[in-house]
Design a protein that fits this description.
By secondary structure, the protein is of the alpha+beta class. Helices cover 39% and strands 16% of the residues. It is built from 7 helices and 7 strands; from the N terminus they run αβββαβααβαββαα. Strand 5, helix 5 and strand 6 form a beta-alpha-beta unit. Helix 2 runs parallel beside helix 5.
């Protein structure tokens, strides 16, 4: 895709995130790989549901006077260490963020889509948004999963394209809502065993099994 196609896709993803109530206000940022050394990311202070053609910054680009999202180092940690990743979504959906602010553990062993799209969920300890410390924490665990809970902050998802990344965000929020609803309703969850999950991931045939480092 050329620059126009990539930024247009980011605009559409931003609208979908807002329409699906997965994003709100100016919380969150999204990016798309340009090449092996650069990526497009939303500009600082933008609202994901109302992104204009001028609301993206190519990082790095010393000629661009626009200020990228302060979270760009977190995105860079993914692109630098996962060559197959072409899309990153960081947002703060209500239920997923509630999980990030609690001791609840969100797992992938509840239903089919959770196994398929979440596969593995890794927690990132709290560091201030936009800090190099946060980017370093992401870098430490970036090869362990595609889905991350940023403690007391929100979520971070990466994938080979925006379609897959968005679906993982939707699945994560659905799983979080289901877990919290069950807790509030005193419903005892029946979790699938590790053997069942492993068999599904290895043999279901929906997509190639990821080999986590």
């Amino acid at each position: 895709m050329n620059e126009s196609q990539k930024t247009n896709e980011l605009q559409q993803i931003g609208k979908q995130l807002m329409n699906l109530e997965l994003a709100w206000g100016t919380a969150g940022n999204i990016s798309s790989r340009n090449d092996e050394n650069s990526f497009y990311i939303t500009k600082s202070g933008t609202k994901l549901g109302d992104l204009g053609d001028n609301d993206f910054v190519l990082v790095p680009n010393e000629m661009d006077n626009k200020k990228p999202s302060k979270e760009y180092n977190m995105h860079k940690a993914i692109y630098d260490n996962r060559s197959e990743m072409n899309a990153v979504i960081h947002c703060a959906p209500f239920y997923s963020t509630l999980i990030s602010c609690s001791s609840l553990e969100l797992t992938n062993n509840t239903f089919v889509e959770a196994m398929y799209y979440l596969e593995k969920v890794v927690n990132i300890p709290y560091k201030h948004p936009g800090s190099l410390e946060l980017a370093k924490e992401v870098e430490k665990k970036v090869t362990e999963a595609n889905v991350f809970i940023l403690e007391n902050h929100g979520i971070l998802v990466c994938d080979v394209n925006m379609k897959e990344a968005l679906m993982s965000v939707e699945t994560l929020e659905f799983a979080a809502k289901m877990l919290i609803t069950a807790k509030n309703s005193n419903i005892e969850m029946d979790y699938l065993t590790d053997d069942v999950v492993r068999d599904f991931l290895n043999n279901a045939g929906y997509k190639s099994r990821r080999e986590w480092y």
